[in-house]
Design goal:
binds adenosine-5'-triphosphate, transmembrane, 6-stranded mixed beta sheet, 4-stranded antiparallel beta sheet, nucleotide-binding, transmembrane helix, elongated, alpha/beta, transport, ATP-binding, 2 domains, ABC transporter transmembrane region fold, Rossmann fold
């Protein structure tokens, strides 16, 4: 299974580092286990009056050496272990991010950003934390237990006594078997509720402007409150069960200690054991309680981590919807015609097609206009050309090659797409425009911004092209954002340019200027232009009118006006509106 490999591969690649960390922590516990037996011997010598000042010094130094040795070794082992955990966390996040970048728009439209953030933050941290703790605590408990057994076996302490003292501790595995799966399912519910809360917070923050303008903060608070309540309920249910589990462990430890003291005290009085042996066993039982308690914690966090790991597994197993065929080839965009044959397309899980029986051919260098009512399928057509969604095979050809057989990188390099809502990143305006190639000279960035008629606005900004945008900087107006996004598309100078309603938010004068610039810079290159305003596309070599996913009219501006159909009435309406 791919997902399981997320952790497995990491441990495999770092096995020697883990061996080193485990060995150092193990050695620390071996040293630690010497403490009770030394104290026991000291007690016996003290009781037999055989202890000289030199002997006391000797024992003092020995115990000091044990404490120091344990501290240094344990600290060093811990450091190595946690360092490995943190490196895993960092690498896992890189791997997940890389995986996300390969997933299609469909995946992101189905899964909220909050959920993905929860994968990246909560789940990865949960796995890291529990792996690091599990290694630390399991190593400590196992080695300590083993060395205590070896030490006791080599001593003259009666076996029956040891067995009776340890007996209550043997119930721990049974408790683990009982509580484990229950804790696991509750912790999964906590993680899911956390993801839902992050999702909700993300959406509420994203829509905060709308919320405020509609003065519906209370509704937003209530919606968010519900997700928080859900986390609280799920967390409390988890805490109830894990607290019960954790409290049972020290109780069992306490019972062992009582048996040790009562039975051991009696054996000592009978002379079956020396006082030193009694002290040593008491200290050993005391010493064992903590690691056994820790094992309980490990089981708890492991349950949580395995739910997280399961979610990460499933995520990494998702195959990107858009796959490149094995023998995909690059295209020569500059000479590439676009041909669409009988294209009918339905979005995944949608009831009816968004495009039906679309057929058209665009020669290299042509300018094509697409107009139509909202929801008529204009954007969908562009997304299919880019393979943001997959068109059926045999329906879209670029340069005579089915888009399924074109290398995705080549397809997207040869097409520049300016979407309706151009997202601007929290960086400088220069980097936002030179997004496709950040190495481009400032002169190229300036040129593109002139073409998009945004140059003048940028020169008025405090730091001109170096002005920071977004969260850490300035907010541009809708029209400025749109033109910045247009400049980003133009600077790519791709053989095919797709403009999705890219001048809708500018005034008529600026629109005219942009269209004039476009005609100049795009001469000889293919441009597909979606617009609601006829003024933006009347110059096109051909215009397609879409309605409910079908081409209902096509031709030049003049031809369409002569048809006297939808286009003509739209034109009349818009002309009237202007005059
Ligand atoms: N991701 C999606 N999943 C399901 N249906 C979708 C998706 N995106 C768009 N649609 C549907 O497909 C149809 C066409 O949408 P599209 O965005 O292509 O229209 P459009 O002509 O570009 O509209 P507008 O002018 O408003 O931008 C609409 O009915 C829309 O609801």
């Amino acid at each position: 299974m791919r997902g399981k490999r997320l952790l497995f591969d990491y441990v495999k690649a770092n096995w020697y580092r883990y061996v080193l960390a485990v060995s150092i922590m193990g050695a620390a516990q071996v040293i630690h286990s010497l403490f009770p037996i030394v104290v026991g011997n000291f007690t016996d010598e003290l009781e037999m009056n055989g202890l000289t000042a030199q002997g006391v010094r000797h024992y003092g130094l020995l115990l000091l050496a044990i404490g120091a040795g344990y501290g240094v070794m344990f600290g060093f082992g811990q450091y190595n272990n946690h360092k490995l955990g943190r490196t895993f966390e960092y690498q896992a996040r890189q791997q997940l991010f890389e995986h996300f970048t390969r997933l299609s728009e469909w995946y992101f439209s189905k899964n909220g950003i909050g959920k993905l953030l929860s994968f990246m933050l909560n789940d990865v941290s949960s796995v890291r934390e529990s792996i690091a703790n599990a290694i630390n605590q399991l190593t400590s408990a196992a080695v300590l237990l083993a060395s205590i057994i070896v030490i006791l076996a080599g001593s003259e302490i009666p076996w029956t006594f040891i067995m009776v003292c340890v007996l209550p501790l043997l119930s721990i595995p049974f408790m683990v078997v009982y509580f484990g799966p229950r804790i696991r399912s509750r912790s999964r519910r906590v993680q899911e509720a956390l993801a839902a809360m992050t999702d909700s917070a993300e959406e509420q923050f994203g829509g905060i402007r709308v919320t405020k303008t509609f003065a519906v903060e209370e509704i937003a608070r209530q919606r968010f409150g519900k997700t928080v309540d859900q986390i609280r309920d799920n967390h409390l249910s988890l805490v109830r069960l894990s607290s019960m589990f954790q409290s049972l462990l020290p109780m069992v430890g306490g019972l062992s200690l009582v048996i040790t003291i009562v039975y051991g005290g009696w054996l000592t009085l009978q002379g079956a054991m020396t006082t030193g042996m009694f002290v040593a066993v008491t200290l050993y039982i005391r010493m064992l309680v903590h690691p056994l308690q820790q094992i309980g914690n490990v089981i708890n966090t492991m349950q949580r981590a395995s739910a997280s790991l399961e979610r990460l597994n499933q995520l990494l197993e998702i195959r990107p919807d858009i796959q490149e065929s094995a023998d995909a080839v690059p295209i020569v965009g500059a000479q590439a015609s676009i041909e669409i044959r009988d294209l009918t397309f339905t979005y995944p899980e949608a009831g009816k097609p968004s495009l039906s029986d679309i057929s058209l051919t665009i020669q290299p260098g042509e300018t094509i206009g697409i107009v139509g009512k909202t929801g008529s399928g204009k954007t969908t057509l562009l997304k299919l050309l880019l393979r943001v969604y997959d068109p059926p095979r045999g329906t879209i050809f670029i340069g005579g090659i089915d888009v399924h057989d074109i290398k995705l990188e080549s397809l997207r390099k040869n097409i520049a797409y300016v979407p309706q809502e151009g997202f601007l990143f929290s960086t400088t305006i220069r980097e936002n425009i030179a997004f496709s190639n950040r190495q481009l000279d400032l002169s190229r960035v300036e040129e593109a911004s002139r073409q998009a008629e945004i140059f003048g606005n940028i020169m008025e900004l405090p730091d001109r092209f170096e002005t920071m945008l977004g969260e850490r900087g300035l907010t541009l107006s809708g029209g400025q954002r749109q033109r910045t996004s247009l400049a980003r598309g133009l600077i790519k100078d791709a053989p095919i340019l797709l403009l999705d309603d890219s001048v809708s938010a500018v005034d008529a004068v600026t629109e005219t200027k942009i269209i004039r610039n476009l005609r100049k810079v795009r001469a000889g290159k293919t441009t597909i232009l979606i617009a609601h305003r006829i003024s933006a596309l009347r110059h096109a070599d051909r215009i397609y009118v879409l309605d409910e996913g079908r081409i209902i009219e096509q031709g030049t501006h003049e031809q369409l006006l002569r048809l006297g159909g939808y286009y003509t009435s739209l034109y009349a309406l818009q002309e009237e509106g202007i005059s």
